[in-house]
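Closing statement on the 2-(butylsulfanyl)adenosine sub-project.
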Amino acid sequence: MPVKSADSAASVDVDALTSAQARAELKRLAAEIAAHDRRYYQDDAPAVSDAEYDGLRRRNAAVEARFPDLVRKDSPSRRIGAMPAGRFAKVRHAVPMLSLANAFGDEDVNDFVARIRRFLKLEADAELAIVAEPKIDGLSLSLRYIDGELVSGATRGDGAEGEDVTANVRTVKDIPQRLSGAHVPAVCEVRGEVYMSHADFLALNARQEKAGKPTFANPRNSAAGSLRQIDATITASRPLRFFAYGWGEISALPRDTQSGMVKWLHGAGFAINPLTRLCAGLDDVLAFYREVEEKRAKLGYDIDGVVYKVDRLDWQERLGFVSRSPRWAIAHKFAAERATTVINAIEIQVGRTGALTPVAKLAPVTVGGVVVQNATLHNEDEIARLGVRIGDTVVVQRAGDVIPQIVSVVEDKPRGKHAYHFPRTCPCYLRTPVVREQTAAGEEGAISRCSGEFACPFQKTEHLNHFVSRRAFDIDGLGEKQIAFFFEQGWLTEPADIFTLKARNAEIRLEQHEGYGETSVRNLFSAIEQRRDIELERFIYALGIRHVGETTARMLARGYGSWRSFHDACLKLTQGDDETRAEMDALDQIGDTVIDALAAYFGEAHNRRIVERLTGEVRIRDAEAPPADTAVAGKTVVFTGSLEKFTRDEAKAQADRLGAKIAGSVSKKTDYVVAGANAGSKLAKARELGVTVLTEDEWLALAGGR
Ligand code: IVH
């Protein structure tokens, strides 16, 4: 820190500063804090304690509060500061940023349109206007405007929580600091895609190379890398662009159609994609797709498909969401990109459940702008089907984020000499036998599994990888590389060990290992501490029980509310308790496969011990209660028969919004059975058990209309 001379502004109380002194002081503080940030983030070598650093930021904030007119463009208050863990502060999205379901061909688009028509109960000749636009291959951003002023910018992250990149987005020219036009909503989150043009990407890589700096693999990575710079002045020097296509939280909708909203966004000061078109239905959108596909190479920026969105916003609202995607939109992807290369080796990877996956090691080849060196061969049968040998020339394909795949062997190139023999033992040091999975029909399935289970080191590390993954515990600074290292060192063998690491660090001395310093160790432990408190659905998902993915975990969490009651139910399942089985079966989207998987998991003493140790280390938050102030909140409802007023999906979506639990079968716990025409066995069962049966109208009246 610079020496403070008695007469410098640095030693003057904030209250006593003159305007000139304040100006000088803000300049000094900006430079000093920026220098500390650089040391902290880039050099991993802070020069001051956290308390001293916080003191500087507090002083800066106090001076700014007294002299708001003097706030500098490069003020530290506009940039994010030292975060205890990770590089950027996390921000929770007011409205989650979801993803789109994919269509890979005309047939899928046809299904999409038909599904919407069915859901909305549209007459065959009723118009269904759809907005079609390119799907930009960049990264999505949410920009929050309050009273028309840009106040924050956040990346998508996991959809619920992103990174605060406010200082960075302020430097992007296509992003207005202030919304223009009349009737700007008081709260308005604008969403869209940050991207980099081909020309700008190539020029940037050339500059990087000249300066001896790393180059980017493709424009998308280059846009992401440029946006997520701690030093926003670097972002400012990168040619980022932005297309607006949607919104999140908004206090009032200025238009009532998607196309109207896009025009409104343009009027508010955003670039919108010039190809965006309002289409009249299926034929129109497919024609649009082909036109854009033809223009694709000449656009000057990467797109990976087109997006279709129902135009009417009231229909979007009715259609709602399934899992993480809207029912009212879909991404129609372009065909995968392909290239040919040679297979140098085939390696076996062992997953969390012990499944052996053969991976082809390729001579590096560029497919659609990305260098590919590995491609999955799925399983033993796929190798046989392709007839692939080591040394063969093969066609490799990459589609979107999907792992590259081998499509075929090029027969007229020199072939490999020896047929590949799938291993009969696990590649781990235990060499446990590999068994082919049985299908439900008792036939041999395609998957080969290591029979080592809990002893297999691969399965253990994969379990840990899943546990810390983004949608599970999401621990910053604990990724696959670290897990592999910690596992090798014997510091980590099961999830609970993560939470005892800090206490054991007196022995481990992590800071003395390569790649670690005092700061990164402190950051890691603080990230772990933050996760001692975890939502029930994440916790259930993190256990990595077979067939229990995110959606299932959410359903279980909602159904049981607390870890205690879920855990009790699982233990009862293992004892063959039929009532518990029926109760679980009654939950929406839960059936025998999941129930059997839970019974098998908790039936294993080893798993119970792992869970017990883990629950001793963490606090599992009860599931968020669904709305409690509606007439049907907390009630269990079964829909049966053919409904006239709305489709089954819509009825369920509405009930869910109102806090009701939707069940698939009728039991003693069912509160209402809503029966349409031709209701069969469920209605009979309801009568038998004395459950209240409602007509659609009665249900609507109870639920308070639509
Ligand atoms: S609309 C509810 N429109 O694709 C989701 N997304 O798979 C609404 N994307 O995360 C998204 N171009 O990053 C939409 N014209 C476009 C898009 C677009 C690119 C990205 C976006 C989103 C991902 C969804």
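The chain has six domains: 9-80, 102-333, 336-451, 453-531, 536-621, 636-702. With this model delivered, the sub-project is considered complete and its resources will be redirected to Aim 3.
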